Each structure stands twice: as C-alpha cells, then as structure tokens.
Amino acid sequence: MAGPGAGEPAMEDERSFSDICGGRLALHRRYYSPSCLEFCLSCPRISLRSLTAVTCTVWLAAYGLFTLCENSMILSAAIFITLLGLLGYLHFVKIDHETLLIIDSLGIQMTSSYASGKESTTFIEMGKVKDVIINEAIYMKVIYYLCILLKDPVEPHGISQVVPLFQSAKPRLDCLIEVYRSCQEILAHQKATSTNPFRKPVLSSKGDDS
C-alpha cells in the first residue's frame, strides 16, 4: 500500500526516547490528517566497537588454527566467513527504521527498513483490527510492547492473532504510550466515521406570518 500523497501537507515532529537496554531511539511523527498518522522509529546504529571485537575474535581464532595447521586456506576462509556474516547481518537482522502508518479508512501498514536497504512491509486491513494495546511480557524482567489485536472471523468478540510492533527497536513504556495514544485517536475517529458515515443537514423553515 502506498503512503499518503506527496501533495498532502504534513506536520512533523521528532522526540528522543530510549530502548529497554538504554540505547537512544528517535521517534519521528508525521501528522497528515485526523485520520492518517505515521510513526518512524529509528533504531541505534551498528556499534563499531562490537563489530571490531567480533572481527578480531574470528581472525585471531583463524590465525591460531593457521599456526597449528600451516594451511593458508584457513585465513582465506576466515575472511570469507567474516564478510558473508556481515552481509547476512545487514540484510536479514539489522533494522535501521521501523515505520507504522495508520489510515482509518484503509488499515495499518508496518515497514521494517534493514541496514542493507531491504524493506519488509506488512499491511492489515482496518476491518480486521480489533484494537491496539500495550501488553507486557516477562523476560527476567517486565517488558512492555505495543501490539495489534486482530478480530476472530468466527467469534465476533474473540481475538484471532496478536501482532507485536517495534520488535527490533524495543522502546520503553514512555515511547509506547506516545504511539498508543495517537493510535487510539485514529481508531476512535474510524469508529465514529463508520457509525455515522455522513451527517444529515438540519433544515429549518420559517412559517408564514399569516
């Protein structure tokens, strides 16, 4: 699904938050209309220190094997494995941006932009959305995450699936509350529009004086 038209005016703002590990996150919000809002959460960049540590560990291990076996193929294999692992990490693991676009008349679009430039997009029709909530999970400590509840097509009051959001960035609760409130405003606008798709004009007439 394509985003809002380029000709539509949008108000933008950016705020800084932290992830559950203390890393810096940037939340960029674009407000197109009361029925259309986009959030873009920028994840921390690759740590050069961690990348250097992993590379040095692999190459030192390869050099140790080379001194024992005296086979130059080991060093070549270490370089090849390092480059292949780095490319795989950038293309399949490291996410730079996570975007959430919600349009009350269409649905919710989630896009993950990887460090290699690859993008992965998921779209959920608004008719399938039951609610957007903040849930909690326990992984040695309490972790909060934003998720979309999908309606059960068989049971009207049931939930068929829970779709978590911002799983790579893992923002803290204050950031989730900011996104949650805006999503609830869009959902409330959508419910009001679907309940009253148009407002009938009020006609008044003035009677004759006679």
State the shape.
elongated
As an assembly, this protein is single chain
Low-confidence stretches: 199-210
- Second CATH tier, the architecture of the largest domain: Roll
State the strand order across the main sheet.
1-2-3-4-5-6
CA gyration radius, whole angstroms = 25 Å
Q: In DSSP terms, counting alpha (H) and pi (I) runs of 4 or more, how many helices?
A: 3
**Helix and strand run:** EEEHHEEEEEEH
Q: Give the rounded overall mean pLDDT.
A: 85
Structural overview:
It is a single chain. By secondary structure, the protein is of the alpha+beta class. The protein has 3 helices and 9 strands; from the N terminus they run βββααββββββα. The longest helix is centred in the last third of the chain and has 23 residues, at 173-195. α1 runs antiparallel to α2. The strands form 2 sheets. Strands 1-2-3-4-5-6 form a 6-stranded antiparallel sheet. The protein has 2 domains: 11-46 and 94-194, Roll (PH-domain like); 48-92.
How do the strands and helices of this protein lay out in sequence?
Layout: E1 11-18, E2 24-33, E3 36-42, H1 48-69, H2 72-92, E4 95-103, E5 107-114, E6 119-125, E7 129-138, E8 142-151, E9 159-164, H3 173-195
Antiparallel strand pairs: 1-2, 2-3, 3-4, 4-5, 5-6, 7-8, 8-9
